[in-house]
Amino acid sequence: MTCKKPINNESKGLQALFGGTFDPIHYGHLHPVEALAKQVGLQKVILLPNHVPPHRPQPEANPIQRLEMVRLAIQDNPLFTIDTRELERNTPSYTLDTLTALRQEMGSQQPLAFIIGQDSLLSIKSWYGWDKLLDNCHLLVCSRPGYATDFNDVQMQAWLKQHRTEDPSQLRNAPHGYVYLADTPLVNISATEIRQKLSAGNLCNELLPPKVFEYIRSHHLYQK
């Protein structure tokens, strides 16, 4: 695979990264991000498929299969593009390392965000170098069913209050430093659920883009 770096240094519009194993990519990934893009005025969403995720079990589909499913899912949607650098690593993919590299490529003034779910925000203190993330990007937080909107930790809640903005224009006018809690649709779909359904021989085509579902069927993925 050749690493695709879709950053356009001539454009200062807000771009966002969205990482995941995408095992497989599904509407629970795509629909909230599309709604988020409309809310904050994202110019581009760069999907970052992970190779060796440090906090999760290893994917069932191999990197080539997962990348192809991502390509099929977004091929008719100009909002999305793909960066394959994390797939090309054989070591764990730490978000801070990827963001630091992208920031160096893009320069200091390009507005850049990283999209996470509410569950990831609440556990962000466990991330490698979490306190340096906002030196490189904004954090855009999508709602997740069943998760609180505040930290139990007083210090972390103070950190959130210090950096939180409710004004999308601040995200577009600053290169990094803000946390935005988005009002995105609560889509209760998980890749684990999809894999379990497919393994049991159940259809779940309503949870996936049609081309992704057909790829899974033709390659006999997630079947015991």
From TrEMBL:
Q: What class of enzyme is it?
A: transferase
Carries keyword Nucleotide-binding? yes
Gene3D superfamilies listed in its UniProt record: HUPs
Catalytic activity, EC: 2.7.7.18
Instruction: Name the residues that span the membrane.
Output: none
Could you list the residue ranges forming a coiled coil in this record?
A: none
Q: Where is the Cytidyltransferase-like domain?
A: 17-197
- Catalytic reaction annotation: nicotinate beta-D-ribonucleotide + ATP + H(+) = deamido-NAD(+) + diphosphate
What Pfam families would the database entry show? Answer: CTP_transf_like (PF01467)
User: Does the keyword Transferase belong to this entry?
Assistant: yes
What domain of life? Bacteria
Biological-process GO terms, alphabetical: NAD+ biosynthetic process
Q: Which Gene Ontology MF annotations are present?
A: ATP binding; nicotinate-nucleotide adenylyltransferase activity
UniProt keyword annotations, A-Z: ATP-binding, NAD, Nucleotide-binding, Nucleotidyltransferase, Pyridine nucleotide biosynthesis, Transferase
- InterPro entries (UniProt xref): Cyt_trans-like, NadD/NMNAT, Rossmann-like_a/b/a_fold
Biological pathway: Cofactor biosynthesis; NAD(+) biosynthesis; deamido-NAD(+) from nicotinate D-ribonucleotide: step 1/1
Give a short account of what the protein does: Catalyzes the reversible adenylation of nicotinate mononucleotide (NaMN) to nicotinic acid adenine dinucleotide (NaAD).
The protein's matches in NCBIfam families, at most eight in alphabetical order, are given as: cyt_tran_rel, nicotinate (nicotinamide) nucleotide adenylyltransferase, PRK00071.1-1, PRK00071.1-3
| HAMAP family assigned to the protein according to its UniProt record, in alphabetical order | NaMN_adenylyltr
What protein family is recorded?
A: Belongs to the NadD family.
Q: What name goes with this protein?
A: Probable nicotinate-nucleotide adenylyltransferase
Source species: Providencia heimbachae ATCC 35613
Its ancestry begins with:
Bacteria, Pseudomonadati, Pseudomonadota, Gammaproteobacteria, Enterobacterales
